[in-house]
Amino acid sequence: MSAHLLTELTVFILAVFVGFEVISKVPTTLHTPLMSATNAIHGIVLVGALLVAVVASPKLGPVLSVAVVFLASLNVFGGYVVTERMLSMFKPRETPTPRDGTKR
């Protein structure tokens, strides 16, 4: 094992622990807004997937490249769907009007 790989593994493991501690301290009322914003920001993951698919050496192969870009796109789209559903919960409900056209 090279020193560079050991350093990268150490940083990864520390990031997992720090991320777990930070997320576990978030109140439950903020989980949905936090997750929807985080998923929307993950558009950067899509850009990274495109770059890796084009620049990777050796080539990842067309099937794996399409799969990576598809999963990154799904993540971004899911963030926007969750945000839309969350915001629709705060819209006032419309009251149905009677069939005869009169207001109650």
Report on the architecture of this protein.
With 104 residues, this protein is mostly helical. The protein has a domain at 30-91. It is 70% helix and 0% strand. The protein contains four helices and no strands.
Give the number of helices: 4
Mean of all residue-level pLDDT scores: 78
First-last Cα distance: 77 Å
Report the helical percentage.
over 70%
> Which residues sit in consecutive blocks of at least 5 with pLDDT less than 50?
none
- Shape, principal axes of CA atoms: elongated
> What is the N-to-C order of secondary-structure elements (H for helix, E for strand)?
HHHH
What is the total tally of β strands? Answer: 0
Which percent range describes the beta-strand content? under 5%
Oligomer kind: single chain
Give the biggest sheet: none
Class from helix and strand fractions: mainly alpha
Indicate the radius of gyration in whole angstroms: 22 Å
In brief:
With 104 residues, the chain is an all-alpha fold.
Secondary-structure map with pairings?
Layout: H1 3-24, H2 31-41, H3 43-55, H4 62-88
Helix pairs in contact: 2-4, 3-4
Structure keywords:
104 residues, mainly alpha
